Amino acid sequence: MKSTTHMNRGLTAFVIGGLIGGAIALLYAPQSGRKTRELLMTEGQETADKVMKSIREAQESVLKTIDDAQIRMEAMSQETKERLNKLQEIARTTIDEQKGSLRKGYSDAKNVVNE
Description:
mainly alpha
C-alpha cells in the first residue's frame, strides 16, 4: 500500500512539474503568439489523435475479450447440456429398472398371498 501511495505521489509531482515547465516554456518562448498557438493546436491535435487511437485499441481489446468469453461460455453450455442429457438417460434407465423390480416383487408377493 505504501509503495503505491509513494509512486502515485511521485507520478503526480512529475506531471505537475511537466505542466509547470511547459507553461514557463510557453511564456518565455521566442516565437510569436500566432506560431505558439499553431504549435499548441498541432500538438493538441496529435495528442487527441493518440488518445483516440488508445481508446479504439482498448475498445477492440475489450470486445475481443468479450467475444472469447462468450465462445467459452457457449462451449461450456453445450458441455453442460450434454451432461444433463446423460444424467436424464441414467435417471430414465434407473426408473425403468426400479419399475421392473417393483412389478416382479408385487407379482411374487401376489403369488405368495394367493397360494
